[in-house]
Amino acid sequence: MNNNFNKFAFNDAMILDKIQEILEGKNIDELELTEEELKMIKSQLEENLSSEELNESSALVASSIEELDVLPNEDIKEYIKRLIKYLNNTNLKCIIGEFKGIEFEVFNDSDVDDVFNDYYSKYDQAYGISQMLSDLDLLK
After folding, report:
1. Going by C-beta distance under 8 Å and a sequence separation of 6 or more, which residues neighbour residue 37?
2. Fewer CB within 10 Å, N side or C side of the chain?
């Protein structure tokens, strides 16, 4: 499991809850952990996280899988379709994709248009396209 950690993003709250369990009630914010203690916690996390918990709380990071790299001349909707197809062949519930610097999530029950709309909303926020069009009186 150790080698696969960089391929996944995890639900931070679930991971913190598991760490709190391992620390047996000690407040994590008050601890100054040594390198050895961190290794022990990591080892116990690997032992205590069930594959079901990992599947529920983890998301595959598409950029860590070579076959999920964005292809030259591939548009966003084609990429989303490819991510959905890949995800449907796994037992995970979510994959995190990135297209033109904008990160977005695809779930196993996602609709291409819904993911596209979410992506475009983030793209618009990042680049301010709607605001520019509005400033130019081109957005009605």
Report:
1. none
2. C
